[in-house]
Amino acid sequence: MVGQVVRVKRKKLEACMTCPLCNHLLNEATTISLCLHTFCRKCIHKKLTHEKVDCCPICNRHLGRLPTEKLRSDNYLQDMRAKIFPFKGREVKDFEVMPSVALPEKKKGEQRERARDLHTSRADDLVPQGHG
């Protein structure tokens, strides 16, 4: 699959990057380490602290006595979200897909000459300099 472009509809990506609590795109993506469900940081903190919930709002997995300790920032997902769906007010240019171009093959003589130059320059680096 190297060099191939895969097209995915924005709606499908948007569904993967939407907070199930507020139904908006993730803002400061935060994942529960036990079940890997992801929410906006503010949404999940509010749910766990203000509403005193001690389980995942999606799968009801029990998070223990200190549920907020099971939360982890998901910087990778947040960065992807910001690149695919930029925040309002920030202008980001569309990604430009460039076809891959094969480099021209070097002739055998050029390869030997380059290898000889590389070998010579490395050998010169190893020769001790005079104490003069």
UniProtKB/TrEMBL annotation:
SUPFAM superfamilies on file: RING/U-box
Feature: compositional bias, Basic and acidic residues: 104-125
Signal peptide: none
Protein name from the UniProt record: E3 UBIQUITIN PROTEIN LIGASE DRIP1
Gene Ontology MF term list: ubiquitin-protein transferase activity; zinc ion binding
Region (Disordered), start-end ranges: 100-132
Alphabetized UniProt keyword annotations: Metal-binding, Zinc, Zinc-finger
Residue span, RING-type domain: 19-60
InterPro entries: DRIP1-like (IPR044807), Znf_RING (IPR001841), Znf_RING/FYVE/PHD (IPR013083), Znf_RING_CS (IPR017907)
Keyword check for Zinc-finger: yes
Regions crossing the membrane: none
Pfam families linked to this entry: zf-C3HC4_2
Domain of life from the UniProt record: Eukaryota
